[in-house]
């Protein structure tokens, strides 16, 4: 695709060309705006816990709550009426063990949550995050052998979790573990169990980021030893992100993801230019909490900062934005 740049010539520069002409009034600005947010671009993440009537705010993520399934179902109805098409679910299990058993228990928290949402808001797309880190006692995203995460021993557990989530009614499965070969293993298991039509949204280019800090408090999923650099990507690498995305597509990913979003806009842009598949970008917890904290201090205007940040993610090339601001965006866009 050739770039169309209206380069000033000696005949066409100032005062003939005045780019300010189209900036004078909001209706004109709106008419020529290249990128505009739409509520349909968003996925709203939520944290679900056991119990009844639980609605507990996460201290490092103001405006985000741990919800029990009954209140999650109410939230899902509100999300759907906002016009947001999808939710992404993270679960807090009753108990954790070495192999993350509750992740693939048909009566696990996520499975119950999916059924509750499906009953309350059948039109909403329910996406389940698929990872073991919230469910393992050691907090890593796979099973541990000899002090490290064993890639190949983890794959069957991920596949089993995917099937259990699909059986509960999940519309889309979203693996976030970063094991090699997991998309292929999950695709095969879903197909073998009658879920050939269930799409996979793969966290493909997922970096080992400090900006997941608030999420790990929210999901109680911080690794108990070491870190995730042995499986999540090195922040210095962009070409490798394209390799991760290409492999996930080859293994059957229907939607690919770049995460975090704001710190990796260049990666989103490069992926957009190379791949035809839909690209999701995750505006992660730290990116959310930074704006929230600054706004609370009176240092930033929350609405303007959030809308500018989210517009940047879309302008970089993301088709889908996962953001804790999604419900705020719905409100802000309605307010106009
Ligand atoms: C689970 C997972 C994480 C996030 C999404 N899925 C945390 C991590 O990898 O440590 C981060 C989301 C956020 O920060 O908002 N593996």
Characterize the structure shown.
The chain has 336 residues and is of the alpha/beta class. It has a single domain (36-335), classed as Aldolase class I (TIM Barrel), CATH 3.20.20.70. Helices cover 38% and strands 18% of the residues. It has helices at residues 26-32, 69-82, 109-120, 151-168, 182-192, 213-218, 239-251, 265-274, 285-296, 302-316, 326-335; strands spanning 42-49, 55-58, 61-68, 86-92, 125-130, 144-145, 148-149, 172-175, 201-206, 255-259, 279-283, 320-323. Strands 1, 2, 3, 4, 5, 8, 9, 10, 11 and 12 form a ten-stranded mixed β-sheet that branches. A two-stranded antiparallel ribbon has the order 6-7. Strand 10, helix 8 (265-274) and strand 11 form a beta-alpha-beta unit. Helix 3 (109-120) packs parallel to helix 4. It is globular. The model has no long low-confidence stretch (mean pLDDT 96). The protein binds ligand PBG. Residues 129, 131, 133, 141, 176, 212, 215-216, 228, 284-285 line the site of ligand PBG. Ligand PBG binds at residues 129, 131, 133, 141, 176, 212, 215-216, 228, 284-285.
Largest sheet: 10 strands, mixed
End-to-end CA span: 34 Å
Can you say what the CATH homologous superfamily is?
A: Aldolase class I
What is the highest CATH level, the class? Alpha Beta
Task: Tell me what the CATH architecture is.
Answer: Alpha-Beta Barrel
**N-to-C order of helices and strands:** HEEEHEHEEEHEHEHHEHEHHEH
Give a brief rundown of this model:
With 336 residues, the chain is α/β, with parallel strands linked by helices. The protein is 38% helix and 18% strand. Strands 1, 2, 3, 4, 5, 8, 9, 10, 11 and 12 form a 10-stranded mixed sheet that branches. The protein has a two-stranded antiparallel ribbon with strand order 6-7.
């Amino acid at each position: 695709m050739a770039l169309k740049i209206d380069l000033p010539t000696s005949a066409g520069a100032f005062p003939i060309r005045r780019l300010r002409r189209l900036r004078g009034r909001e209706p004109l600005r709106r008419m020529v705006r290249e990128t505009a947010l739409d509520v349909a671009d968003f996925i709203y993440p939520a944290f679900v816990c056991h119990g009844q009537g639980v609605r507990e705010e996460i201290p490092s993520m103001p405006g985000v709550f741990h919800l029990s399934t009954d209140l999650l179902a109410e939230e899902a109805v509100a999300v759907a009426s906002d016009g947001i098409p999808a939710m992404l679910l993270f679960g807090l299990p009753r108990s954790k063990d070495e192999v993350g058993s509750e992740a693939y228990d048909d009566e696990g928290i996520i499975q119950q949550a999916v059924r509750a949402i499906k009953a309350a808001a059948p039109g909403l797309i329910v996406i389940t995050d698929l990872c073991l880190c919230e469910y393992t006692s050691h907090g890593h995203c796979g099973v541990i052998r000899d002090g490290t995460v064993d890639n190949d021993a983890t794959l069957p557990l991920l596949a089993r979790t995917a099937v259990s989530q699909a059986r509960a009614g999940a519309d889309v499965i979203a693996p976030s573990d970063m094991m090699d070969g997991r998309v292929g293993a999950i695709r095969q298991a879903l197909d073998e169990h009658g879920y050939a039509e269930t799409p996979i949204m793969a966290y493909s280019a997922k970096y080992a980021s400090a900006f997941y800090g608030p999420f790990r408090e929210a999901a109680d999923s911080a690794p108990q030893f070491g870190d995730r650099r042995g499986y999540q990507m090195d922040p210095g690498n962009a070409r490798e992100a394209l390799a991760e995305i290409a492999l996930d597509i080859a293994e059957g990913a229907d939607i690919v993801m770049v995460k975090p979003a704001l710190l990796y806009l260049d990666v989103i842009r490069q992926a957009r230019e190379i791949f035809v598949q839909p690209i999701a970008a995750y505006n992660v917890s730290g990116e959310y909490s930074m704006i929230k904290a600054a706004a609370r201090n009176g240092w930033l205007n929350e609405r303007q900062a959030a809308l500018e940040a989210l517009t940047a993610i879309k302008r970089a090339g993301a088709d889908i934005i996962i953001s804790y601001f999604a419900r705020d965006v719905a409100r802000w866009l309605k307010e106009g």
